[in-house]
Task: structure prediction
Amino acid sequence: MKNFARQVLAVFVAMALFVSFGSALVAVIAAAAAAGGGEEVKPKSLLRLDMSKPIVDKPISGDIGETVRELAKGNEPPEGIPLRDVLDAINHAADDDRIAALYLTGNAAGGGLRSGWATFEEVRRALIAFKAKGKKIYAYNENYSERDYYLASTADKLYINKFGFIELNGFAADMLFFRNALDKYGVNVQVTRVGKYKSAVEPYLLDKMSDANREQIEMLLGDLLTAFLNGVSEARGVSIETINQLAQEKGLLIGAEAVENKLFDATVDYDEILAELREVTGTEPGEKIENLVNLGAYHANIADKLKKSGDKIAVIYAEGNIVDGESQKNVGGRTVARLLRKAREDKDVKAVVLRVNSPGGSAQASELILREVRLTKEEKPLVVSMGSLAASGGYWISTYADEIWAEPNTITGSIGVFGLFLNFEGIMTEHGVTTDLVATHDMAALGSAYRPLTERELGVMQTTVDFVYEGFLDRVSEGRNLPREQVAEIAQGRVWSGSRAKELGLVDELGGLQSAIAAAAKRAEIKEDGFQIEQFQKERTPMETIMEKMGMNTEVRTRGQAEHGLNRLMVEAEDMLESYNDPRGVYARLPYQLDID
Result:
């Protein structure tokens, strides 16, 4: 009854909010419903790609006030813009006579699943193709990180502020270890696991990396660095040896130094790049550039032109931690399984692309999704496109696809399993809290948070983990048509880069989402221009976002105010803990939260 009253109240409050927004919100909705849904694109327009807006696989909910303000301006939502929108906009702009050039600015937001390295790899290819059509790219920032620079290095005119600097110091991966803190607060951790490299449990058991974990991370960083070096060297005409030497000896380069080493074309102040952009757009000196169009607004303007008729290719997103049950925030096993079933039963859908951008999670939820993958593959082509992370459970759900596509800097593999069991007996004892138990059998309280598991109970859980791991190996062996002995050798929970995974047979081709869609169309024997994309996860409307803010859907967490620093760290830590919801406590998950810069 209490929940019902709350929902009724939420409806009235939401209605009141809509009234208070008045004509401004109505104008936003009306604009979105108008032809194309975006602002007018004038001749000699400059298309702006702001890297500070995270690029995501599927839209997520953000701050409603900022969302409304940005939508009213014709901009992309502040919480991010979908990768397909970015690619479609850049590709269309290359042949659009109204677009004179592209302006790349802002410092890359997100990390991990959002604006990850593999995502930037695909956007980078689109920018290079844009240039190949004879269109210019201008890039300017006060400062650059390696991730910013990787995208910006494609520019014809690459500028840095006169007082700015570029971070060029190689790649590093930090890991947090909680063992000492858990001991301090009286929290005991017990684990069961399989796989020499399955180090997901290490932060709870150790105070530093194991030798095996350090070995795999060193190889992974080396592979990702190779992709970075090759891309920058080719784009800027600077040798790999020179870039490596600068990273080793300098770390940070001030603007003039970076120009001297040919990493940039010139150092300029903002007013100087603005003057150059005015010339590109035919704007009088001192006047505001009226025909500067943000990528999100441009995509809204051309949305109708992008629509195609004919057969459908369904794109389903598995983005986030794989969790048991339903979820929009993460990859709910039942949710994604239902979407796959819907695509399989839709006669107009001729092929399916499963976009996987996930570190894994619940083994049971992964198996639920994989079952639908296998059933769907029996009826129509199914191709997997791996994003920045497609590891452990993310690989589990991919293994039976007709084809697996990954970027060279995708993080994948991690074929291993673990169980994690926390109890609070120590802190309870310290504070004088005791428990008592009545049970019908010796293991009736298995998994209790009030005491450690007994040796017998740990044995039972290890048997479960072993069973799941053996099943994982079986599925990879059968799905990838690899000898089981070979799978066992490259498994052990070890992570691989996309390029290394292709060499090992875990991945078929190197490429992004667009390539995977093209491959699915080819398998379905559909002509390149003879299909339309059906995205099964839809972007929420402003009304739906407001209702979420009123608490009517608590599945989706707002991250608009938790983007940086400790606040973001706490949200991510809480998300990770929430993702450990497998009914058996058994997980196929990447061994760490990995942000590489």
User: Anything to note?
Assistant: Residues 1-36, 61-66, 544-566 have pLDDT under 50 and may be disordered.
